[in-house]
Specification:
One of its GO terms (molecular function) is molybdenum ion binding. The protein is α/β, with parallel strands linked by helices and 774 residues long. It is built from 33 helices and 30 strands. The structure holds ligand MGD (2 copies) and molybdenum atom.
């Protein structure tokens, strides 16, 4: 098949038959189809396990079968019968594994034994847990300073694992907690913290059912949070508006069918979910929301002059907010030309969005990576909040803010203290409960950790899950940085590229996943997670572990801690014999978790509470704060603007339908019409031709940054796509070599994965010949 034949625009609706067929194919393709289906039925139901997929929450009604296509893929992927055991590692040298694709590596199955890298053999060889822990302890104790070690966390770690991990790392003496959040919703936490005093969403599932308008900004729920489609569809049915801001016409947002309503599937019925769909420039959302505020202000002034109906919620503003005047002055000072130019939207579009916003009494704003992975993401989040504050849309039913989280427990990990900036309350609580001095100084986030390893300042890397080498920016540089370490350690369920980018010494430690039964000294254990609505609940694995040597994440952390610190500041091994002991420690030190073990007895779990949702503002001013920021003069960085060459396009990097971050379940992206390939770049057909290419041609992408380094990816097929002019879109992680380590968000250090200035070059001849031969 030629490249262009493998691109077929998708005609069906999202999440209907197509979705069900894809799930079933996935199930039947697995060696454990029957068991997996049974496990699936318990997902997210009381008594079952929490879906290891996304962080979306559920309404509390039980008994419903709650699953989605991509949750099914995540469960199935973890529950595979294939094994990556010592025989596997005996068969392949590390060099030969490194030549395989990321897809192939993870597809090989579950890691079963602790493995140690033997450089002389170029292989991983079996080791014992005790020897592995001893090796880690030796390296950690040999460092001149605890700040020379990096402790990464990915967002699947349970609350219990995350809590023990941060306790160990802080008792060891550092706050070096690079984590996946740094690359994800960091801007939401920072922006919301200043504005409303909490860094988490203020809405619960029920609010979605009561709102009159739901904005979905920079988010692709059809692929990444499929269970969110259901409340969106219900909203439209009730006559509420769904208003999307996304440069791409994402399938799930346009229209969809619900797989749990077979009747509708039979009639192939589908209905539009989006009442309006705005397609901004990349990074144009702050300008768009500034424009909405400007219209509201115009109408409010008009109402004041003519005794019309108020546009602003004047009582709310007076009682609850600070900073209105300077914000409105900033809105006045922002010109319409600037707003229109930067947003990529017409004045009419912005006015329509403002009218729809004004019409609704209760509005929820949801957003994800399209908002948070830019240089100016914090102020963009704050501009969204400003607009919400103007009409009192925070802290009442059916209204609020919803940064939709990614990993299934990424929010819980932060709550448990995985944070390179240890909050003062946490420091005090830990010191009151345990006998050690918590380090005060700021630790490393992800970008700082890479820089420290690159410069030889950090020498040990430990990863609690995730795929650091691929998820992070500037891939070749990051790989070199990891290779400079004395020791790299990965606690993981599946083999991935990070395990093959080793320090001088390296370990792979196989752990249980969310779906596995976890038995410790005192019996079977459950772990807890927090969803995007701050609901905490317990999760019990259902499947027999594939190897008796796998250990749970808490047990592995306790093993490392015990070997490094002995029984200081607690008896680690005693703690993990029964996880309710860890939960007692959490109850003693983390606000909202008092009486933790008892609260879990409540089916469906408990809500952590959210001050802003109750209109209690834990901000500097004690009020909800209008933050007035200047709209950036330019979105392209100065370094790039001063180059002689100009960018051809601005690239965003995103997820396909068949992937979970760096985990590739397959090579298709059904909703975008791509089959069997991932090295594609979506560009507007006019742009393709204007730049002198043909659709289907292979190109290299070279990013511009201005530091003299070349950043290039090769042999990407140009797909003529419905995308605004000047933009390109391609999949992550393949495009991470293009993201400069220094290109990160103001204050957030989040790589600007949705805004990369690139040039296209014809692919070298070798690629063309390859494609002709294919
Ligand atoms: N199946 C599946 N589920 C997942 C994941 C997965 O990989 N697979 N990942 C999980 C994780 S960790 C996360 S963080 C979430 C990610 O969930 P999303 O944020 O939905 O993920 P992305 O694919 O990065 O999609 C970003 C969306 O924003 C749009 N966009 C890009 N730039 C801009 C912009 O400047 N403005 C606007 N308005 N829109 C823009 C893109 O067109 C795209 O639709 O999903 C979680 N759930
Ligand atoms: N260019 C670009 N880069 C991005 C993004 C982007 O949109 N564009 N998105 C960013 C975002 S939002 C995120 S969250 C990060 C994700 O970064 P990470 O969280 O580091 O990456 P994942 O791909 O989710 O990690 C997958 C690996 O986790 C391991 N794993 C799976 N389940 C478990 C488990 O239960 N326990 C343990 N210990 N290990 C497990 C498996 O070995 C698997 O290979 O990537 C970021 N990078
Ligand atoms: Mo994420």
């Amino acid at each position: 098949m030629s490249e262009i034949e493998r691109y077929k625009p998708y005609k069906g609706a999202a999440a209907g038959w197509g979705a069900l067929i894809a799930v079933t194919k996935n199930w039947l393709g697995s060696e454990n189809a029957f068991k997996n289906i049974r496990a699936m039925l318990k997902t997210n139901q009381n008594g079952g396990f929490d879906c290891p997929g996304c962080a979306w929450g559920e309404s509390q009604e039980s008994g419903m079968v709650k699953f989605c296509e991509n949750g099914a893929k995540a469960v199935n992927w973890e529950a595979t019968g294939r094994l990556v055991n010592p025989a596997f590692f005996n068969k392949y040298t590390v060099s030969s594994l490194a030549a395989q694709s990321d897809y192939w590596l993870e597809y090989q199955g579950r890691l079963t034994h602790p493995m140690r890298y033997d450089a002389s053999l170029d292989r991983y060889v079996e080791t014992s847990w005790d020897d592995a822990f001893a090796l880690i302890a030796k390296h950690l104790k040999e460092l001149e300073s605890p700040d020379q070690a990096e402790f990464y966390t990915s967002g699947r770690a349970s609350n219990e694992a995350a809590y023990l991990y941060q306790l160990f790392v802080r008792a060891y003496g550092t706050n070096n907690f690079p984590d996946c959040s740094n690359m994800c919703h960091e801007a939401s936490g920072l922006g919301m913290g200043d504005s409303v005093g909490v860094g988490k969403g203020t809405v619960t599932f029920d609010d979605l059912e009561e709102s009159d308008a739901i904005f979905v900004i920079g988010q692709n729920p059809g692929t990444n949070h499929p269970r969110m489609l259901e409340p969106l569809r219900e909203a439209v049915k009730r006559g509420a508006q769904v208003i999307c801001f996304n440069p791409l016409k994402e399938r799930g947002l346009e229209r969809f069918q619900h797989p749990q309503h077979p009747l509708e599937m039979l009639t192939n019925g589908s209905e539009p979910t989006s009442s309006a769909y705005f397609r901004p420039a990349l990074g144009g959302d702050m300008a768009a929301f500034r424009g909405i505020a400007k219209f509201l202000l115009e109408w409010e002034r008009d109402a004041l002059e003519n005794n019309g109906e108020a546009v602003f919620d004047r009582a709310f503003i007076a009682e609850h907010t600070a900073g209105l005047d300077s914000y409105l002055a900033e809105v006045d000072a922002t010109s319409w030309e600037h707003i229109v130019e930067q947003s990529g939207l017409s004045l009419e579009d912005i006015e329509l969005a403002a009218r729809m916003y004004r019409r609704a009494k209760r509005v929820i704003m949801c957003w994800a990576m399209g908002v948070t992975q830019h240089a100016h993401s914090v102020v963009t989040v704050q501009e969204i909040i400003n607009v919400q504050l103007l009409r009192g849309n925070i802290g009442r039913p059916g209204a609020g803010l919803s940064p939709v989280r990614g990993h299934s427990n990424v929010q819980g990990d932060r709550t448990m203290g995985i944070n390179e900036l240890a909050p003062p309350e946490l420091i005090h609580a830990l010191e009151a409960r345990f006998d050690f001095k918590v380090p005060r100084h700021h630790g490393h986030n992800t970008v700082m950790a890479i820089a420290a390893m690159e410069e030889g300042r950090s020498k040990v890397f430990i990863g609690l899950g995730g795929n650091f080498a691929q998820a992070t920016p500037d891939t070749p540089r990051t790989h070199d940085a990891l290779r400079k370490c004395d020791l790299t350690v990965h606690i993981a369920t599946k083999l991935n590229r990070s395990h093959l980018v080793m320090g001088r010494e390296a370990l792979i430690l196989p752990c249980l996943g969310r779906t596995d039964i976890d038995i410790q000294e005192e019996g079977p254990q459950g772990v807890t997670v927090e969803d995007t609505f701050s609901m905490v609940h317990i999760s019990h694995g259902q499947l027999k572990p594939k190897s008796p040597l796998m250990r749970s994440e808490p047990a592995i952390i306790a093993g490392i801690a015990n070997a490094t610190l002995g029984k200081h500041p607690i008896d680690w091994l005693w703690t993990v014999a029964d996880y309710s002991r860890i939960r007692d420690l959490i109850a003693d030190t983390i606000p909202g978790f008092e009486d933790f073990n008892n609260k879990l007895l409540h089916p469906g779990g408990f809500h952590l509470g959210n001050a802003a949702a109750q209109r209690i503002w834990e901000t500097a001013s004690g009020k909800a704060q209008f933050v007035s920021s200047v709209l950036p003069a330019h979105l392209v960085s100065e370094g790039v603007r001063t180059l002689d060459v100009k960018p051809d396009l601005i690239l965003q990097t995103m997820r396909s339908h068949d992937q979970y971050n760096t985990t590739l379940y397959g090579l298709d992206d059904r909703y975008r019409g791509v089959y069997g390939m991932r090295d594609v770049v979506f560009v507007n057909e006019q742009d393709i031709r204007k730049l002198g290419y043909e659709p289907g041609q292979k190109v290299d992408m070279v990013s511009l940054w201005g530091d003299g380094r070349e950043r290039r990816v090769s042999g990407f097929t140009l797909i003529a796509y419905d995308i605004p002019p000047g933009q390109a879109a391609a999949y992550y992680p393949e495009t991470n070599p293009l993201v400069p380590l220094e290109s990160y968000g103001d204050r957030t250090y989040t790589p600007t994965s949705k805004f990369i200035a690139i040039r296209l070059e014809p692919a070298p001849a070798s690629n063309l010949i390859q494609s002709l031969g294919a």
